[in-house]
Structures are given as C-alpha cells and as structure tokens.
Amino acid sequence: MQQGMLMRKVKSKSWKKQRYFKLQDDCMTIWYKSKRTGKTESAFSISDVETVREGHQSEVLQSLADEFPPERCFTIVFYGRRGNLDLIAGSPEEAQCWVQGLRQLIESRSFPLTSALVSCTWIRDWFQKADKNKDGRMNFKEVQRLLKMMNVDMNEDHALRLFQAADKSESGTLEGEEFVLFYKTLTQREEVLSLFQDFSEDGKKLTLLELVDFLRQEQLEDEGTEELAMELIDKYEPSETARARHVLSADGFLMYLCSPEGSIFNPQHLALWQDMSQPLCHYFISSSHNTYLIEDQIRGQSSIEGYIRALKRGCRCLEVDCWDGPNGEPMVYHGHTFTSKIPFREVVSTLEKYAFKQGGALLPHPFLGAEGSWWCWPPAMRGLGNSKSRGENGYPKVPTSLSPTLQELKHKILLKGKKIGRLEDMLDGPGDEAPDVSDDDNGAEAEEERRRVKVVLPLGGTQHSSALQKDKENLVQALSDCVVYCKSVSFRGFQEARSHSRPSEISSFAEAKARRLIRDAGNEFVRHNAWQLTRIYPSGMRTDSSNYSPQEMWNVGCQIVALNFQTAGMEMDLCDGLFSQNGRCGYVLKPPFMRDEETLFNPTDPGSREGPGPITLTIQVISGQQLPKVANSKDGAVIDPLVRVEIHGVPADQARQETKYIENNGFNPHWDETLQFQLHVPELALVRFVVEDYDKTSRNDFVGQFTLAFANIKPGYRHIHLLSKDGTSIPPSSLFVHIRITE
C-alpha cells in the first residue's frame, strides 16, 4: 500500500478516472492524485474510515457489474455524511491488497490509554504533524506548534522546561525516545495519580488487597471482587514483574480506568442482557423514517446506503416506499416529490445482506418493514417472497398465535401494511369475512396512502383490460398475504381499540397527534402500548429531515418511534444512547410498569409509578482529556470547554446543569465541579453529557457528547469516551467523572 497503486475512481457509470493512491509514511493518511496531471486531488485519514466493502456494494458499482468483476471492486465508507469512495483495482490481487491493508489499519487504530504505553502510531502521527521542516527532529518552535495543534495554550516558560527536561542529549532538539519522554510528561494525569496514591500505601503500586478495597469502596463492585482484581492486573498491568507479584502500577491503574471496565457504560449491558422472550409490543424498537433518503425529504438523494447505515446502526424497523417504475419494475422513492429513485430489487438485495447482521455478528431478532407502501406489481412480490419470513411456498408462514414473542419471530421479516380480513383467518383457515383494508390513520398519512393507490394502480380509460384487472386483484391478495403481525388499522380512540382491535394490529400517528394523546390521555396511551404496537412518524412539515424528540413518545411506551437517521443532533443522540445496550440488537425491554395492561402509570404524574421513590444522581465532573478542536476553527485557536449534563425522561425529570468554562485548555481541562439530579422515574431516564466551546458573543460550539440510559450507568470513577455529532468515536477525547447513585 505504501508503494502506491493506480486504480479507477468511480462516480457514475460514465465517470471513471484513473487515480494514483498511496498510503503515507505515517500509516494514517492516504492521498490520491490524477494520473494525467500528477496533481494531488485529496487525502483522507484512516480515522475517518468506518469500513471497507468488497464487491458491487454500492449503486455505482452495481451499475458497472457487467463491465468489472466484483473481485476488482471495493468501496471505502466514511463516517458521517461524507460520500463513499468507489474504486476499481487493476486486478483482484491488487484489490485484496488494499482491502486487507485498510481493514488491518482500521482494526489497529487505537488511542493512547496511558502516558507510558502510548501507541507508536499515535506518537508518530503527532511527531510528523509538528516536524514542519521534516528533518526527523523537533526544535522548541515546533514544540510550541505541537501544543497549539493539541489544543494546549501553555505558558512559554513551562513549555520550555518540559522541552529541556526531555532533551537528554542537550542538542536543542527532540528525537526518538526524547520525544516519547516529552509526550509522557505532557500527558501526565495528576488527578488519577492522586486517586491511585489514596489507596496505595507506598504510592508506587496497588497490592491485590488495596485494589480490592478500591473496587469495593469506590467502584461499588460487590461480587467476585478478588477475581475481578486479578483479571484487571493480568489484563492491564504492563510490567511482567508486577503481574507476577499480583500488583498494579500507576500505569496499569490508568489503563484500567480508560478501559471498557472503567467506562461509565456498564460493560455487562453491552451484550444481550435483557429478557428476549416477551411479546413484540413490550419492547422499544429502533426505527427509521423514510430510510432510503440520505438528505432532505423533497429533493434529497435516495440510496441503498441509507438502509446499510441504518441497519449497521442497529435499526430494526425500516421504510420502503415502493412505486411503479419503467417497464413494470418497482422503484423506491418519496412519492409526489423530486427525490431520486432506486430499484426495489436493489433494496431487497441490500436487506438480504444486512438485515440480520450487525457489526459482523448475526442479529437473529425480527426485522420490520414499517411502511405499508408496497404498492407495486408482481415483480416486487416475488422479491419479498424470497425473504426469510416466507414459508416453502413463498408466502408467509402461518402464525401460531396473535401475540408472538421475539424468540418466536427470530429471523423473520415482518411487513406493516393493509390486510384483507383478519389474522385469525390465517390461524383458522380461509373464511368468508368481508375484506378489511383500513387506513393507518384518519389524517395526512391515510390520504397519502389513498393517493398512492390511485397513482400506481391505473383506473379508468381503455387500458383497463380484464387481464390488467386480474393482475390488480392478484396483487392485492399477494400483498395482503405478506402482512401477518403488523396489520395497519385506523385509530378511533382507546376505548374502541380496547374493544375491537387485536395485538397483531398497529396504528400510526404523526408526532402532533401523538402529543395530543399524551397530553389528554397519558395513562390510556401507556395501557394501549402494553398490548398493541404504535408507530410515530415525523411531521410532514419537516422537509429538511429534522427530528422530534423521541423521549416524550417513549415516556408513554410507543414502540416504533421513527426518526430521520441521516440527521445528526440531540434526537439521534438519544436514539443511539437508548439502543447502544443489549448487544445493539435494536430492541430494549420496557420497564415492568409499562408492560402491564392495567398500569396506573402516567408520565405527567411520576407518583403513579409503582416502585421505590426518587433516586439522586450525583456527578462530579473532574477533568477532560485531549478534547478536539471545533470544526473550521482558526489556526492556533484553543477551545474554552464546559460540560453540560442533561437528563431526558418524564417531564418531572427533565433537567440540565453545566460547569464553568475553562479558558484556553482543550488538552487537559480540570473542572472539579459537582452536579446533582433527582430522578422520579429512572427507568425511563437518559443521561447526555455534552462538551461545548464557550463563546460569550455567540452560540457555543459543539465539541463532543455521550448519551446512555440511566440503567446502564456504572457508579464510581469512570471515563466517558466522547462521540462526534454523527455518533462516531473521537479518540482519545474523554471526560473523567465520579458517579454516585443514592435513594
């Protein structure tokens, strides 16, 4: 890879340009230039790359499938909204060289967990950035440049003392081990060292018993503490001698605190930890709105990338708006708008590849096609017939109950839509009941569905032959047969639903109607959601693909709260925060009082919740480490960081508090401030940590955030590893906090 390679960069079927790609010496940067002009076009960092996909796994490469074999094609996928890079290598061997090389670099990228055991790649990266004259040495002027790059506004005299202390050769420059020593001194964590010495009798090491005391007293580890202490020493102590003596050095202590075991997120909750044998309606379900769109709702681009990104994010409920296309081929796009279109067969192919995978692991839990917009001709039906939810005859497997559990629905694809007759007809055999093809809602979505039928199923005129009419009738039955457990029905009030609706049915509400129901009948809404599915979708006025807060919908137990996944912000932070637990499977079990059909709970009255009284969450915000600069900031600018902690939950729990700002220090700011919150319904609370760059004349700039459910918080001294606006990690940026939870 470092020797460079000539490949085709592809933007469309007709735009294929040869470019020379090369991995830079820092093993972190790849640049490419034009073969014809020799001019460098662009560069990107390995840290910006999310994954590499082999073969024809983009619309562009799929359109070239007849021209170039999949063995020569691959796609580089970037974090955030940056477009993918589609490439065609000269041979399968060259393609594999780059694919495997990039994957190794992606897997090996890591951040410095301690000042003593900093990664060589990371040090080399900083050294090369600061070594302006590229002579392999760093003079004091370059050190000052490095400090600015690292978000440090350090007194010049202090910086000179650090430089001279590291310059053992007294040459006036730093190289090799001298630079490593300088970096160690620069990244010294005094607050962690002080904590270490509080539990260490000699101030140099923690014995096994001293580490056990720390784990019990501060980290509140009360089970198998001695075994845990031994595991931590074996895993994080860098010295073989110390490991043999069962002691932990200061470096090993910091390694532990920066590890998953030292994270604020309970590591046991990263895996599948909840009961997965409950009915579907007892879970919050990660859900996307108009999944095919990666931009706005009117003129935005439709792309299979929207489905891939949502599924890899753990989404289990997607939308597929399907319309007639040229030559009878169904197309997916936002009807009655100017959005681009993608073939339905490409969407089905994408779902087949990704619907039951997440992060390389199998994801067996059911996948829902939420939109009942499959108004297309038989080719689309044949595509659906091949999905894993089908029986041997290509039609849905006959259900065995009206309210199946997640276990029973493993590896199934459920379609939400209109249905002829009732689910009982499939259980008991064909009946003579009149067709029931109810709309989802009495409002805008129902009207949209009616218009969609008119557009796709031609009515009137000389084209209406008996054969066409027969196809139409067959289509309706085929579509109906695909809908099993998510039959769309109109909502005519909670009393009507309780008397006549069934657990296998679902109603949809625009966000405004959902808010009215929450305000006027909160408890009834909670009870309704204890036995039947509800879907919430954004207002049609959100043409910019903005989002509403999902929290108020979760507060009444709504399961399918659909958001525009392509739009970063607080709303998607909450969504990612809730569904980052439970193996990221896209399902989170609702609290017991929201699964009881006779519950008295109303989110506007927290006293209606059965269970213990309010709890107090105390957060000491101690320090921050290597916070990133604000995007598009001026050269030499250093941030003034502050930390805001937000509680999102029932109205009584909604709160936010923030620290003071620290002037000119994004590298290692110290706040040492304590924030305290009272939570009346902790089971529904999400905690969001936000770091901002203070600005006294304008709005503060976003620096980083981390959001998690209160149920996943681990008390004690913990690190919070910050995420970007797009929800991607920004190593090594973190906060160091102390958490206490009391009743």
Backbone shape: globular
| Beta-strand residue percentage | 15-25%
* Spatial extent as radius of gyration: 29 Å
| CATH architecture descriptor of the largest domain | Alpha-Beta Barrel
Q: By CATH's scheme, which homologous superfamily of the largest domain applies?
A: Phosphatidylinositol (PI) phosphodiesterase
Oligomerization: single chain
Share of helix among residues? 25-40%
Q: Uncertain segments of ≥5 residues (pLDDT<50)?
A: 110-120, 372-396, 430-442, 444-465, 471-475
- Helix/strand class: alpha+beta
User: Mind telling me the CATH class of the largest domain?
Assistant: Alpha Beta
The domain tally reads 5
Provide the CATH topology of the largest domain. Answer: TIM Barrel
How would you sum up the major sheet? Answer: 9 strands, mixed
Intertermini distance? 57 Å
Biased composition (Acidic residues): 426-447
Organism: Pandion haliaetus
Domain EF-hand: 118-153, 154-189
Main location: cytoplasm
Question: What would the keywords be for this entry?
Answer:
alpha+beta, PH-domain like, Recoverin, domain 1, nine-stranded mixed sheet, globular, Phosphoinositide phospholipase C
Protein model, in words:
By secondary structure, the chain is α+β, with helices and mostly antiparallel strands. It folds into five domains: 105 residues, PH-domain like (Roll); 73 residues, EF-hand (Recoverin, domain 1, Orthogonal Bundle), CATH 1.10.238; 73 residues, Orthogonal Bundle (Recoverin, domain 1), CATH 1.10.238; 268 residues, TIM Barrel, CATH 3.20.20; 130 residues, Sandwich (Immunoglobulin-like), CATH 2.60.40. The protein contains 21 helices and 31 strands. Strand 21, helix 20 and strand 22 form a beta-alpha-beta unit. Helix 8 crosses helix 9. The longest helix has 19 residues. This is Phosphoinositide phospholipase C. One of its GO terms (cellular component) is plasma membrane. Its EC number is 3.1.4.11.
